[in-house]
Design goal:
about 550 residues; mainly beta; six-stranded mixed beta sheet; five-stranded mixed beta sheet; 41 strands; disordered N terminus
Length: about 550
């Protein structure tokens, strides 16, 4: 049975020692005649930074309520049904101490409970497992407002259970944000330990109206602030950034960010961002309005030049640490070559009337002969004053290879009602020529080859407003991990859509939709296909890390 639990309170105790001889005269039946013994197959608890305790309490009942003739033995083994077993307690409930720093620490502890009825001489055995899961791994992070300030909530998954912590930041850090919520960013690529970063599968950035508390967080260390923006940008570049109007996008080579027409990037050896500068081949003035990070590269939209440009992340990436030389630069901005006969539109000649709405992470082409990270695309959605929308399908692979198109598709259709610059949008590696957007309380699937929109989800509150959409896996990955979900999740993250909903009563909800390959809500798997997570204030943004 799937359960939803709020943040866990754990009581303290100590471990017992000893040994238990398994005589084999036990049964797997839950009952000893009129005596009932019930124990969950697994228990889940989040790992803490320091030693902590956890208590497992079986549900044992007798007809008359008398348990004096029952005898208990808890044993522990190295595997689910391994022998021999060491006796660790003879109490009805088992309390264990978990120390992440100890040599015998494990993420899985296997126990057996033996209950002996001394009146009948019968013993029942029930196995169980204690699963320790890393905090904020394969989890939703929710940026919402509570009591006039920003708060980070979390939705975590472990072996069929869902753990909701609306005030995860306050619980972890022991303090609260002072600023109001602005934006979340995440870079999902990291799956190994880099020279400058802790060991974690992704990087989380938070933005509030207080810059001193905004920047790169360390979810392994209680969501502590690793570096604020004054550390993430050299001092001479801080004045170029409007922190209230900035846009970030993750790439394989680090986070990219644009603001006030400038574009900046980090790299794999440093979170510090340097400005990218125009190459000699980029003619005319430019103003970078949006950027989309990709494998080894990024694509940006130049508002002044009415063109797409290539931000070459393989140049200018030689700095490391938190105090690199001030004369570093972030690499070159270069024009995108138009390939007549291959490109369906000239990326250097976008109609001056067109305005970009958003870049949305696109389809992962299953093309043979190229590395997985080279298969990614992005969808650029632009609009014209005449009410027409245009979506450009752009391939990253072509920016480093000359035999394929950069603009492999352009589709024109009437702009759907309610769509503007603020419209939440999402897609992912699974979906070719499909993306999802939200207007009011509805999520739509758009087939942009035809311009047809279909409602795939509608919130029951007609006055609700959807503030954010995000596919759990939507970034650039080192291998085919983008098509997989965690072993315990049971559904591909690249088809798991997070929907932030603000209801008419001023509350926030995170709706998680598990989609099928056609982009409709799927059937239930390990977890419900439509999950409603409550307890949040008005939600500004969401991330998946």
């Amino acid at each position: 049975m799937k359960t939803i639990r709020y943040a866990l309170c754990i009581a303290a105790a100590t471990l017992c020692a000893g040994c238990y001889e398994d005589e084999g005269n036990y049964t797997y039946d839950d009952t000893l005649e009129d005596i009932s013994v019930s124990l969950d197959e697994a228990f889940n608890v989040r790992m803490d930074k320091e030693a902590f305790t956890y208590t497992i309490t079986p549900d044992i009942t007798t007809p008359d309520g008398d348990k004096s003739y029952l005898e208990y033995a808890w044993t522990q083994g190295s595997a689910p049904m391994s022998l021999p077993q060491d006796t660790i307690s003879r109490e009805e409930a088992l309390t264990v101490t978990i120390d992440p720093e100890s040599e015998d620490f494990s993420y899985n502890y296997y126990f057996r409970l033996y209950v002996k009825d001394n009146r009948r001489g019968i013993t029942v055995m029930r196995p169980t497992e204690l699963v320790i899961f890393k905090p904020f791994t394969d989890s939703w992070i929710v940026l919402h407002e509570t009591d006039g300030h920003a708060e980070l909530g979390s939705v975590e998954y472990a072996n069929g259970e869902i753990f909701i912590t609306p005030d995860a930041y306050t619980q972890e850090s022991g303090a609260s944000f002072t600023g109001r919520p602005v934006r979340l960013y995440s870079r999902q690529y990291n799956t190994q330990k880099y020279t400058w970063l802790y060991e974690a599968p992704s990087q989380l950035y938070v933005q509030t109206t207080d810059l001193a508390e905004s920047g790169l967080l360390n979810q392994v260390d209680g969501l502590s602030l690793m570096a604020d923006w004054s550390s993430l940008l050299p001092e001479h570049l801080l004045g170029l950034v409007d922190f209230d109007h900035m846009q970030c996008s993750a790439s394989q080579n680090g986070m990219t960010m644009c603001s006030n027409g400038h574009v900046f990037r980090a790299n794999n050896n440093s979170p510090v961002m340097f400005e990218m500068l125009p190459s000699v081949s980029l003619s005319g003035d430019y103003y970078i309005e949006q950027v989309a990070g990709g494998p080894h590269t990024a694509i940006a939209f130049d508002k002044l030049g009415h063109r797409f440009v290539h931000c070459n992340l393989q140049t200018g990436d030689s700095w490391s640490g938190y105090a690199p030389s001030a004369d570093m630069y972030g690499g070159e901005i270069v024009p995108i070559t138009y390939r007549s006969g291959l490109d369906v539109a000239d990326p250097n000649a976008i109609d001056p009337q067109e305005e970009i709405l958003k870049f949305v992470g696109g389809y992962h082409y299953e093309v043979s002969g190229i590395a997985p990270w080279q298969k990614y695309s992005t969808y650029a959605w632009t609009v014209s004053p005449d009410g027409q929308s245009h979506i450009y399908v752009m391939r990253y692979y072509s920016l480093t290879h000359s035999d394929v198109a950069t603009v492999s598709g352009r589709y024109d259709f009437p702009t759907p009602e309610g769509v503007d610059h603020q419209t939440p949008m999402a897609s992912g590696p699974t979906y070719s020529n499909l993306l999802f957007y939200a207007v009011g309380n509805k999520v739509y699937r758009l087939d942009f080859t035809s311009g047809n929109s279909t409602v795939i989800y509608q919130h029951e509150d007609a006055s609700a407003e959807i503030s954010a959409l995000l596919m759990a896996h939507n970034s650039v990955f080192q291998n085919d991990a983008d098509t997989n979900g965690a072993d315990t999740y049971g559904h591909p993250f690249s088809r798991t859509l997070g929907v932030a909903v603000n209801t008419g009563d001023g509350q926030g909800q995170l709706i998680v939709l598990q989609l099928n390959t056609a982009g409709n809500v799927d059937s239930d798997h390990t977890y419900p296909s439509t999950q409603v997570h409550t307890g949040f204030g008005p939600i500004t943004d969401i991330a998946f890390i």
